[in-house]
Design brief:
two-stranded antiparallel ribbon; 10% strand; binds zinc ion
Length: 156
Amino acid sequence: MEPTTDLATCLLCGAGASPALNLPRFAGASCQGCAQRVGHLLVQEPTLLTDIWPLLADDAELEEPEPTVQRADGKTVELRQVIAEMKRELSVEDRMKLAEMYGEIGLIREQLEECGRVLVAASAPALAQRALDVLFSPELCSPRGIEELRGRLFPA
Ligand SMILES: [Zn+2]
């Protein structure tokens, strides 16, 4: 879905959202500021969000030792670290593509975290919208996801 320029009320902060990022599943919209706040939470505290995105708790791969690779200089490093360095070179659009690919191959925790990074970095509403479409899909997000997030972002 495309972001719209109609004035809508943000489901999270309650302010006018323009451009409005659509959250059709929750019959409303988010402003860009709140989308970015959600991204920060996902990147910084994914383990605290498992009631909203249950698959963030999918730690099957944590039980296995992280594979290591040998660098050109002979040093052995964790594969995870090498990937993190490579990702730093990617554009936000490429990171979004990566997130979508993670979904296709079933790496959902990675997909969710990558969407969070896109939200943190995205200046273009169309990219933020793509990340939100994934994050708030019925397959991944709890039906109470928006309410829960509102409570986290704006504690009463
Ligand atoms: Zn907002």
